[in-house]
Hints:
The complex is a heterodimer of chains A (239) and B (249).
Chain A: H1 12-23, H2 34-41, E1 45-52, E2 55-61, H3 65-76, H4 80-87, E3 91-93, H5 107-113, E4 118-126, E5 129-138, H6 146-163, H7 174-177, H8 185-198, H9 202-215, H10 220-228
Antiparallel strand pairs in A: 1-2, 1-5, 3-4, 4-5
Chain B: H1 3-17, H2 24-39, E1 43-49, E2 55-60, H3 65-72, H4 79-86, E3 90-94, H5 105-111, E4 116-124, E5 127-136, H6 144-162, H7 170-198, H8 202-215, H9 220-229, H10 234-237
Helix pairs in contact in B: 1-2, 2-6, 7-8, 7-9
Amino acid sequence: MQCLSETVVVSVAMAGIVAALSRDGSRGLAAVAAGLCAEVLGVSGVAVSVLASGGGDVVWRTDGVSVRLDDLQFTLGEGPGVDAAASGELVLEPDLDAVPVQRWPVFTPAALELGVRAVFAVPLQIGAIRVGVLLAQRDAPGLVDGGVLTDLLVFAGAATDALLGSVPGDSGPLWLSGQPSGYRAEVHQATGMISAQLGVAQAEALIRLRGHAYSQHRAVADVAADVVARRMRFHENTE
Amino acid sequence: MDRERHLGETFVELADTLVDDFDVIDFLQILAVRCVELLEVAAAGIVLADQGGSLRTVAASDERARLLELFEVQNDEGPCRDCYQLGAAVVNVNLDGARERWPQFAPQAIARGFRSANALPLRLRSQVIGSLNLFHADASGLDSAELRTAQALADAATIGILQQRTIRRGEVVAGQLQAALTSRIIIEQAKGVLAERLRISTDDAFEVLRGAARSRNRLLSDLAREVADGSADPAQLARPPAAELSEPG
Lengths: 239, 249
């Protein structure tokens, strides 16, 4: 069997952006300029909105078209970001001209008029925890190929983390993926257990889990293992 | 039943699942169980690479933590990591002789009673998206016929994940992979909720979740999401569905 693997890795530039996000955890997405991010991704603009009841709320974006696209989707209740938020799935349309009219009957012509020719929406989520949507657009049609797609998805992961409020000193997005070989699924199980222990949503449970690990100077995976093994429970006043 | 017939029936069974109401994690878990039956291995597991290149466990023939952990540790070293990076099958590696090759993984696999390991690539043309991991607990290994069957089962896994034979665009692949990885995380979150609410282990929680999905004819991932976001009542799930029918009178 031939060795033909193409293992695509994150670009150096995007790794730098992700590192900046984790270094400056308390600033959230403000630690990175949206314009720089758009440039690294090779897109015309980028925006992150958080999901709040009643619709999205843009918290970080490049100027101009991104703002207009968000207004459009919010007003119309349709569009790639709306779909991504609702379905929890990637929405990647490299050629807006080729999208069937009935998909986004009002959004598509309006976006084309703004000069948008390609849209890429990534839900920002960890399992059932949905925090927002990342929307990128291009003024020319074209696929996001392997390298850019990897960067886009890696950035989405880092943005999800930033929105959940990474704690200072926490190793940013690495808090999950950078754990030494161990049972990462336990972190998600612990999240579920804590949400039931405290009667809160998964998102808050995860924030409490990470906050506790930080305050105890322990790895999140270790605290999670304790929770799953029932060596500890979370109470109202567990910090 | 003889192996050829079992194999044929397995592929019919797998093809039947590739229709409406298809649940990728459930499919992969069934596939892993079939691998054990057809190939006479002790355990099977499927890992997928995420966008960062980390290998994530998505399904195994035995969903208990003790086995799942063994797939998880292969993010750093092991047959799956080698298979993924090389893009080629890793076959019949004797674990006792692999302690230098895999200093962390080999002892852990041996401690769980395994003697040899294999990893087949989940491949889409020139891209490898993950690996099918197979363990033997005895001195046997995969012969050439079994190796071909194993690769066919790995290919079936890839088709199940991607659900199309003629995918050309990388972004479609990415979307399907993200969906599978997200589904698995939701299942883990749901296991936690059930474990806490029903006072059971996370291993048992998986059994409750899967049993409830099957007896209610619901997709595993849909039910898991409802458990995770609080819209399903764990106490109800632990009971057989007949108990939910209204009382007479």
